[in-house]
């Protein structure tokens, strides 16, 4: 078998292994096990963080389903911004109703908006109770009833609406000398600012600790893949920590906490939950706080918390503290803007994967191309052209080496005849031949090895970044983050019935136009070289394009589009370089030769 076909087999086998491993086995990013700390004393002094009483197994706000359900029907403050719609419950001051104006569940005209936060009582396949709350923790000896809780009925001005121009203020007087206020504002995108203040009109100092919490009562039923992180995510003193939803119940059981991981943060950070495209994150303005991730089995509750140090408020004085809440889509430009404004490493809330050093610049380039071209599909093709141009010098050297190897085939055949069955002599003769002709047989593999991290990185970009969500290309491709919607089984929509869905046994045969074009592009790439004389090797090579066609049939259209463009450019490059070295490929002859071999194959 000549070395070009060896390289081709190596390329297809490596690529197949890459696809299988990446889809089923490789984790998206390395997960750091959160640090464990001992439960702090319930007697707090200024500068320490108050720990929830042991009677509250769920932490700062115990799981009170009745209170949360009452909150769903309580009076509400409407949220109306250019990008968000929803409301805040005045019972408990709970952020539990939020939808994204710019994103729909599907491409249907009557599709509902993507709903991020929902109150207790919501139970559908795509939405479960999911909310954020803020409050105060009592220190030892203080009556918890003196502080606002989940059943606290806050007051607000009549007709108040939260917009970027009109913040709202909730108030509650405990009737014993403490007046609590909560001012809520929001920007043009997805960032809330919550400023909690307390006026102490009692005759004694008051010591309390503010907290924030994001809670999920169960998680929506959806297909989760190993390459994507979905679950708790937090930044603590510059260290990114990730715990998937299914790993939260495995955290260490801490007294009064449930299965929890606590980290003391000294230099700033944030914590919350992230899904493929959406995220809800607590971001304290204070750099010193306790970050908690937990799971409460009794309530099937996933929870993240920020517990801030105890504040001492003198008689007749007041004190306030601000925190921020991100609740929205993980748009690169928006999140990068927040990072530039002071949120540490906020861009890393996007799951960039192992090859982040390639994925980040690759996405920036794709983002720039998209803004310049105005179409994400053409931007992917332009990105492919740029990547191929960058690696062309190495690819050219590889193609030249392959062409020289082809020129040496007659001498190698003579060497094989001369050496017979003496494998050692044959090996020595081949090494001497390579040295004399200055040919490196391994050079043809280098571009293949380079393709692996590039493919992984582009896969990540296309799979996890929301900029491809419902992004159209042309004609029938309306969503580059989804598989090709057409199917060969209904002649790509010409027959009056729908293609089989993912639950059907025929779904694997329901190939769209793009996967078929991918198979054809790989097949043409093969025809740059004659088929090997060995029938087994020839059969393996012949089947590879069609195997890949089925393997990639359910991949995102953007990824398949990249592969088609990559194959097409590679074909042009190889054809040109081989022609320049006097070895113009006989593509038509190689195709006809394959048909003749099949037609002339002996019958068994």
TrEMBL record:
It is found in: Cell inner membrane; Cell membrane. GO terms for biological process: protein insertion into membrane; protein transport. Residues 35-57 are annotated as: Disordered. The chain crosses the membrane at residues 376-395, 445-466, 505-524, 545-565. The keyword Protein transport applies. Residues 376-578 form the Membrane insertase YidC/Oxa/ALB C-terminal domain. GO terms for molecular function: membrane insertase activity. The keyword Heme does not apply. One of its GO terms (cellular component) is plasma membrane. It comes from the Bacteria. Residues 76-364 form the Membrane insertase YidC N-terminal domain. It is a multi-pass membrane protein. Its main location: membrane. Keywords: Cell membrane, Chaperone, Membrane, Protein transport, Transmembrane, Transmembrane helix, Transport. Pfam families: 60KD_IMP, YidC_periplas. Interacts with the Sec translocase complex via SecD. Specifically interacts with transmembrane segments of nascent integral membrane proteins during membrane integration. Required for the insertion and/or proper folding and/or complex formation of integral membrane proteins into the membrane. Involved in integration of membrane proteins that insert both dependently and independently of the Sec translocase complex, as well as at least some lipoproteins. Aids folding of multispanning membrane proteins. NCBIfam families: PRK01318.1-4, yidC_nterm, yidC_oxa1_cterm. HAMAP family: YidC_type1. Belongs to the OXA1/ALB3/YidC family. Type 1 subfamily. This is Membrane protein insertase YidC. The gene is yidC.
